[in-house]
Write a structure and sequence with these properties.
alpha+beta, 7-stranded mixed beta sheet, two-stranded antiparallel sheet, 9 strands, globular
């Protein structure tokens, strides 16, 4: 079951750092945005944090399935839930590191297309180097999905 977490969102910040290791950025988007979780027997299995950018655009700030629950479709369910919840939005953005090959594959399978990048994002905003797939995370790559009104 998917539910919005309204009370004590910041209690989940350390968990969300599993996919975004900058606690300050996580706390900022939790304060400014909305947090939803996929629960099973009152236990959260996956999370999605979103923030409205403007009247037409929503950014997915964090999409995380906890490690023991990956590959079961929870993240996909959360993303589809958000796309349905925000019927008034025509553009959805989601970002990932240049080193996050699995994320890029998942997003493109779900209809997202490469949009743009912020160069050196992970160098400028993260105190420690991040490595995935034997590559350093340097640039933030954005993928977008657009639908007609």
């Amino acid at each position: 079951m998917i539910e919005e977490i309204i009370e004590n969102k910041l209690d989940y910040a350390s968990l969300l750092c599993e996919s975004d290791p900058n606690i300050n950025l996580v706390e900022n988007y939790l304060r400014d945005g909305r947090l939803f979780a996929y629960f099973e027997k009152q236990t959260p299995l996956a999370f999605i944090a979103v923030k409205e950018i403007n009247d037409t655009t929503l950014e997915i700030k964090n999409l995380l399935t906890l490690e023991n629950n990956r590959g079961r479709g929870y993240g996909k369910s959360l993303l589809q839930y958000i796309e349905n919840l925000y019927q008034n939005k025509t553009t959805f953005l989601i970002g990932t590191a240049n080193s996050s090959m699995t994320n890029m594959l998942i997003y493109t399978k779900l209809g997202y297309h490469y949009s743009h990048k912020i160069e050196n994002f992970f160098i400028d905003y993260y105190p420690q180097e991040i490595y995935e797939n034997n590559m350093q995370a340097i640039d933030l790559l954005y993928f977008s999905k657009t639908r007609a009104n």
